[in-house]
Specification:
about 325 residues; 2 domains; 8-stranded mixed sheet; binds adenosine-5'-triphosphate
Length: about 325
């Protein structure tokens, strides 16, 4: 499959503070890929960089190639056009992204009419179709509802409907289920899975939750302290992590290998390193049970690992880290 997105050596500073370094990964057409890591590891900033939604004081280096065009050198007009036609992003708190004092139907109609030169009546029919496609019962009635009349899961379905207006090729979903209860989380994940399969939509699912990611994604990118530390197939990552960080994430989240669901989050010992002041050497070394003196002084590159993935661990060839036990 052709690469839809190719991020290479991405670095990002905001207001002179370095927050992302050497972020590299690819997404193929139609792939659903997870981007995981603890809070502050740089997942959202990576998504916002792809969308061109950074604050004015941001400076990005490297390349973010989408369908062969470098988004980092694209002008604001071109980025706006892409966001209106090829790229969409949904966020953690859907209610916060919707206007509380306007019926949701009007808000979807606005988005439709911002993209297509159609009458209000046609835009309303399109809004209704979209609500049906994201599994909302009674779409006509939902169009006239306000957010306070809808559940969090319904609001997220509406945000997904809005993200689909432009029929994007790539959907960035930033913690789309975190604010929802477990049953609704599963329904939203099923919806995303269906959309990816039926539309060939490429999805980058940003989450700290390995259970959610392992349910939906064929590959997983792990970030720590502003860097990508592994890229691997999900099944391989769960059984044979090639880096002590995803290994620790797996142990801490206790993913059950039989169901591939996360049942408890206990956290990793130690404090996440701050990307603005990263440790010398391997950024994970202060929390790594396998560190050596070399890890304290030598920065590892992202290199090929056993199983076909990539890892940023100096000791990956000698360590045998087994995944979580069922
Ligand atoms: N606009 C900004 N200005 C300065 N620092 C920022 C800005 N946005 C994010 N950061 C910092 O960059 C780092 C990465 O943030 P980011 O939001 O990408 O992390 P994350 O992995 O998505 O975490 P979370 O899961 O909590 O959303 C954090 O240390 C954060 O405080």
């Amino acid at each position: 499959m052709a690469d839809l997105l190719r991020v290479a050596d991405l670095g990002l500073s905001i207001g002179g503070t370095r927050l992302l370094s050497d972020v590299s990964f690819t997404l193929s057409e139609g792939e659903v890929v997870g981007l995981v890591g603890e809070s502050g590891s740089g997942k959202t900033l990576t998504g916002l960089t792809v969308m061109g939604l950074l604050p004015p004081t941001a400076e990005a280096t490297g390349t973010v190639e989408f369908q062969g065009n470098d988004l980092l050198t694209a002008g604001p007009e071109e980025l706006r056009r892409l966001r209106g036609s090829e790229l969409s992003m949904i966020f953690q708190e859907p209610r916060a992204s919707l206007h509380p004092a306007r019926p949701v139907g009007k808000q979807i109609v606005d988005v439709v009419r911002a993209h297509e030169q159609v009458s209000k009546a046609v835009a309303q029919d399109r809004a209704c179709d979209l609500l049906a496609q994201v599994g909302l019962p009674n779409p006509r009635r939902t169009l006239s509802a306000y957010t306070h009349e809808l559940s969090g899961g319904m609001c997220q379905r509406i945000m997904i409907a809005m993200a689909l207006v432009c029929e994007p090729r790539l959907l960035l979903a930033d913690e789309p289920t975190t604010a929802l209860d477990v049953t609704i989380q599963a329904q939203i994940i099923e919806l995303l899975r269906g959309l990816a399969e039926e539309r060939g939509l490429t999805v980058l699912l940003i989450s700290h939750n390995l259970g959610v990611v392992s349910d939906l994604c064929s590959r997983v990118i792990t970030m720590y302290c502003g860097q990508v530390v592994t890229v691997d197939r999900t099944d391989h990552l769960l059984r044979h992590p090639q880096h002590p960080y995803p290994w620790a994430l797996l142990q801490a989240s206790a993913v059950d290998l039989d169901t591939e669901r996360e049942h408890e989050w206990t956290g990793i010992a130690g404090t996440p390193a701050n990307p603005a002041r990263p440790p010398v050497g391997c950024r994970f070394h202060p929390r790594c049970p396998h560190r050596t003196e070399t890890c304290e002084s030598t920065s590892p590159d992202l290199v090929a690992a056993e199983g076909g993935g990539l890892t940023r661990c100096l000791r990956h060839e000698e360590l045998t880290l087994s995944g979580v036990s069922a």
